[in-house]
Structure prediction request, 226 residues.
Amino acid sequence: MPVVEIQPNLKHDDLARLLGSPKGRIASNSLNKKLKHWKKRTRQIIRPRLVYQKHKLKKVSAGIIQLDGNYRLKSAKLSRTLRRSKEIICFLATIGAGIEKEIKLLMGQKRLGEAYLVDAMGSIMVEDLVEQFQSHMGEHYRLQGQLVGLRFSPGYCDWPVTEQKKLFKLIDCQKVGVELTDSCLMKPRKSISGVFGLIPCPEGKDLRTYNPCADCNKFDCPARRS
Ligand code: SF4
Prediction:
């Protein structure tokens, strides 16, 4: 089961957006100072790692995805997205527990603004780690005549968070040091698990990956991708 190490980026625009400045500008000098400090510090304390495994899809029917080894995932939107896929990539990424320890320290010192800032930085970095991984896989499989589909994680869209337990059986979570609690939360918290399909795409064919958001009326959904 391959483990990859990717250094995540901390894009200023993403951070500004999370801090409520949609145009990417952070005007306050004191906030900019804190940002500079925490950008440097978070680089020192993160431990980014990602493990992934490719699995064959046995059958994809309405709402059910059957994988080799008799594993069954349940999600209508995921199954529709995977209907042309023959294989699926399951992954688990983390930036480690360092950020959480730092947040706990800050909270104990009542530096709540900085705790929020560090938390936001952690979220952006783990998301970027997964983005970079998927983009790298997209490039790799494109050369083999395959497309990568949209990414799904348990707990988002119509895929129940309880399916996390199944996903953890499909990946060697110990390789990256991530545990799952009884309530299906990941420890360390700044971790992302998920799947995406591989879609055969013969050369010259202009296949598009299916996006269920295009047919969905939940316009206030925070995970919307269209
Ligand atoms: S908007 Fe997209 S992500 Fe949100 S529920 Fe609908 S299909 Fe799922």
About this structure: The mean pLDDT is 91. The first strand starts at residue 3 and ends at 4. The longest helix spans residues 112-142.
